[in-house]
Design a protein that fits this description.
about 180 residues; mainly alpha; Arc Repressor Mutant, subunit A; 2 domains; 9 helices
Length: about 180
């Protein structure tokens, strides 16, 4: 494949993603139709499927891109501010985040790799807010956050309704109470 063909493929893929992102800003993932994405991108529906294999894969890609756009609060920030910023970002994209978490039970290894890359800005923000926390605790805090978010979205609550309990769960992992010394 020539360099020009590769550039064309990348541009076509980006046009499809931009069209899906645009349409998903006005409707839920369930309402999205591959034919609408194709028409919006100026390509055929079969080309959309060729690039993404399924509507679920396309929505997952858009959701992961949105999650990767997370902007942490400026340093110095505390863990509560980071969790609040994460929730604010996820609330703005609630239907996409719900779809990403729904698919997380069965996605392939490549999607897990993309998910972990999308989490990197959140990971860095938590590390900056808790520099003394070992990396294992930061990973456990992210897991606690997403388990809380998954539960919140499954119960179809507003993400803001879950702020207090999720913040408490993440802080408990990042700043565990130290046991009193035994005498």
């Amino acid at each position: 494949m020539s360099e020009d063909q590769m550039r064309d493929r990348v541009r076509t893929r980006e046009r499809i993603l931009a069209a899906a992102e645009d349409l998903l800003s006005a409707r839920s993932a369930r309402e999205l139709k591959v034919r609408e994405v194709a028409a919006h991108a100026g390509v055929s529906a079969s080309l959309v499927v060729q690039y993404f294999l399924s509507k679920d894969a396309l929505v997952l890609d858009v959701g992961l891109r949105r999650m990767a756009e997370f902007s942490p609060p400026p340093p110095p920030s505390d863990p509560k501010a980071v969790v609040a910023a994460m929730l604010e970002a996820d609330a703005a994209n609630a239907s996409l985040v719900r779809e990403v978490l729904r698919q997380s039970w069965w996605w392939p290894k490549e999607a897990e790799t993309a998910f972990q890359a999308a989490l990197e800005p959140r990971r860095k923000a938590l590390r900056a807010a808790c520099p003394a926390a070992p990396s294992g605790q930061v990973e456990a805090a992210l897991s606690a956050y997403f388990e809380g978010l998954r539960k919140c979205l499954i119960e179809t609550k507003s993400i803001h309704d879950c702020l207090a309990s999720m913040t408490t769960g993440v802080i408990a992992v990042l700043e565990p109470k130290t046991a009193a010394p035994e005498f």
